[in-house]
Write a structure and sequence with these properties.
This protein is α/β, with parallel strands linked by helices. The protein has 3 domains: 5-39, no CATH class; 43-224, Rossmann fold (3-Layer(aba) Sandwich); 228-410, Rossmann fold. The protein has helices at 12-22, 57-72, 129-134, 136-139, 150-159, 177-191, 202-207, 209-212, 228-231, 235-248, 266-272, 289-298, 313-322, 339-346, 361-364, 379-391, 393-410, 413-428, 432-435, and strands spanning 5-9, 30-32, 35-39, 43-47, 75-81, 102-106, 109-114, 116-120, 123-126, 142-147, 165-169, 196-199, 218-220, 253-257, 279-283, 305-308, 325-327, 351-354, 371-374. The strands form 4 sheets. It has an 8-stranded mixed β-sheet with strand order 6-7-5-4-10-11-12-13, sandwiched between helices. Strands 16-15-14-17-18-19 form a 6-stranded parallel β-sheet, with helices on both faces. The protein has a 3-stranded antiparallel β-sheet with strand order 1-3-2, with no helix packed on it. Strand 6 (102-106) and strand 7 (109-114) form a beta hairpin. The protein is globular, with a radius of gyration of 23 Å. The model is unreliable at 1-39 and 432-444 (pLDDT under 50).
Length: 444
């Protein structure tokens, strides 16, 4: 299925004016005597799990790419699950919670948020998805599915929309054994009709059982973000930074950001704290908070931890700028990339991350370049790295500078969108130039 085209009948003089007016637009112009063959803007629909204000790596990525693609000239829609109930409470993990369907916009991005009437093993039961996808060929040129995403994967398998399908493979399903094996059947149905896969790192593409057999269909495109809010913090962000620094009393300030789930490894950050000076800020919420709080009490560091569940975007930027270093202690391959590392690096905050076999985490922030990489599940190594940054100001300054430079050079939103749009053009056959996807990183 190709984008819709419109024949424009023009005189020779009109053709010249038309070429001049459209020369800078993101459309392909092919002159045929006195006629021009003009594809309308590509209409893409991202199939995501949730969307902002939900905080998560996939959600941050989808919002960033949707906004930037819209700004680049694409017609962008995001279909997702509504995670907020009628009281505006986050009920994404509540098995019995109900939410309603909503249509909204985020700038120029259209949002279709489907209501759910129950959740089981991360699968949301929704109405309207099948009809939406069956009608997709009339409304879109390409579908872009973000996985793991059981709800939309099953809907795509059942509805079989006759559109090219691009899949961004964020991570394997690692722990959820209840759904992992049955979901293999669904994956096979969906993945057999995928035109192109996108992976964020070569390491993950080569280590994933799913992608290893599809490397000839996989393009590596590092995730990117709009870095400006982090490189140029707002007055509000700077005020919050100053508040945090004042509360720290001149001692080091360590920062963790993420959901309190098993693979984030936050218990190792808490276990490292008794071996370090300073305070630890934990930003997030989730099912493990109670056990993490209990661990902090048991280790005698509860008074040195600040739990911040809901921060505004500006406050989060302020926290990165206040922190001595960002701790990213994830422990298993469910953590495939870690967008929050880019947020920290762009803020000039060095990252202490982990060397997870088969994960791309250590490819985002590099050891001794933008931070320090340690063994996963090692509170001792995490504490030793933090103490190096605390006691060696020259090292801290060098890694802070390296973090900001690496974010700018490798993880800008512009690079990611250009390469992803090239994938779309290649899949749709819009240009031979795009089919090479020369700007995308090779796998190897």
């Amino acid at each position: 299925m190709s984008p819709r085209y419109r024949w424009l009948h023009l005189t020779k003089y009109q053709s010249c004016l038309f070429d001049s007016a459209l020369s800078n637009l993101p459309v392909t112009i092919i002159g045929i005597q006195s006629r021009h063959y003009v594809p309308l803007m590509i209409r893409v629909c991202h199939l995501a799990k949730y969307y902002a204000p939900f905080r998560g790596g996939i959600e941050t990525h989808v919002q960033a790419i949707a906004r930037a693609q819209n700004a680049s000239g694409l017609d962008v829609t995001v279909a997702c699950i509504n995670h907020l109930d009628d009281r505006n409470q986050d009920v994404w993990c509540d098995r019995l919670a109900r939410t309603s369907r909503q249509s909204a916009t985020d700038g120029g991005v259209r949002l279709e948020k489907f209501g759910k009437f129950g959740t089981l093993a991360r699968f949301d039961f929704c109405t309207g998805l099948l009809g939406f996808l069956r009608n997709a060929p009339a409304n879109f040129d390409i579908l872009h599915l973000h996985v793991p995403n059981p709800t939309f994967s099953i809907a795509v398998a059942a509805s079989k929309p006759s559109l090219p399908l691009v899949v961004t493979y964020h991570s394997d399903i690692v722990k959820q054994r209840f759904i992992r094996q049955p979901f293999r059947i669904v994956e096979k149905i969906v993945f057999n009709r995928v035109s192109q896969f996108i992976a964020a790192t070569a390491a993950y593409a080569n280590s994933s059982e799913v992608l290893r057999s599809r490397l000839n269909q996989t393009t590596v495109i590092p995730f990117g973000l709009n870095l400006d809010p982090y490189t140029n913090p707002s007055p509000s962000a700077l005020r919050f930074r100053d508040q945090l620094l004042q509360r720290s009393g001149g001692l080091p300030l360590w920062l963790c950001v993420g959901r309190f789930v098993y693979y984030k490894g936050f218990e190792h950050a808490i276990r490292a704290l008794p071996q370090c000076r300073g305070r630890l800020i934990l930003v997030g919420s989730g099912e493990l908070k109670t056990s993490l709080v209990s661990l902090a009490v048991e280790l005698g560091v509860a008074d040195r931890i600040e739990w911040l569940e809901k921060l505004s975007d500006d406050e989060l930027v302020g926290a990165y700028h206040a922190a001595t270093a960002f701790w990213f202690p994830s422990i298993v391959r469910s953590e495939a990339f870690g967008l929050v590392q880019i947020e920290a690096m762009a803020s000039g905050c060095p990252v202490i991350n982990t060397r997870i076999p088969g994960s791309g985490v250590a490819e985002v922030s590099l050891d001794n370049v933008s931070g320090i990489t340690v063994a996963p599940a090692s509170a001792n190594e995490l504490a030793a790295a933090a103490n190096r940054l605390d006691t060696q100001p020259e090292l801290l300054a060098r890694l802070s500078k390296g973090a900001a430079q690496r974010a700018s050079e490798h993880f800008s939103i512009q690079q990611m969108v250009e390469q992803t749009n090239d994938v779309y053009r290649s899949v749709l056959g819009l240009s031979a130039e795009a089919s090479t996807a020369s700007s995308a990183a090779p796998i190897g």
